[in-house]
Amino acid sequence: MTFCAKRHNVIDRVVQKKALVGRARQRARLLQLPGDEQNNGGGDELVDMEALHTIWSFLLLLALLAFPQLFGVLLFFLLKGRPHFLAHALSFITPILMSIFFSWMIFIYRYYQAHPNERCGGPLLGGLMITLVGACLQLVFGVLAQVTLHSRTAVCGPRLKV
């Protein structure tokens, strides 16, 4: 290992200790050589992890909206042999209920499981708002999906009476 690699390993180990975070960053700045822009005491890694966490949160939110709708469309094709209204009704209602359940589990239950002594109602209000907005979006996208399914599926076409 080179001197720079050893120095980076020592700095990373020191930064990971919670009690010495402030002093470790000071030491990293003192050990930083002129022209060594890549090492600023571990701050870039923290920013990169924050960006990854933000991207993951948005991906989770989009999946929370997309997965129930895809499940509803698949449910429609599964129920196409059943009465026509039942297939449309179940494939419209199921995504809304799934969205409410998943958002409750992700944004409310998981938060209060991680913070059992939380006394503030702000996180609960935020989780309920996300649940409400998600349910409203599922209503809108559900109507669009059902109209699209109705117009493009042969199952929904006029039936010949024999």
What would your notes on this structure say?
This protein has two domains: 1-41; 57-153, no CATH class. The protein is 76% helix and 0% strand. It has helices at residues 3-16, 21-31, 43-78, 84-114, 122-152. The longest helix has 36 residues, at 43-78. The termini are far apart.
Quick structural gist:
The chain is mainly α. The chain has 5 helices and no strands.
Oligomer: single chain
- CA radius of gyration is 26 Å
What structural category characterises the helix and strand content?
mainly alpha
Number of helices: 5
Using the alpha-carbon principal axes, give the shape: elongated
User: Number of DSSP strands?
Assistant: 0
Report the major sheet.
Answer: none
* Element order: H for helix, E for strand: HHHHH
DSSP strand content: under 5%
Average pLDDT number: 79
Please mark out the parts with pLDDT under 50 across 5 or more consecutive residues, or reply none: none
Give the helix proportion (percent range). over 70%
* Distance N to C terminus: 84 Å
Task: Name a few traits of the molecule.
162 residues; mainly alpha; 2 domains; 5 helices; elongated
Strand and helix layout:
Blueprint: H1 3-16, H2 21-31, H3 43-78, H4 84-114, H5 122-152
Helix pairs in contact: 1-2, 3-4, 3-5, 4-5
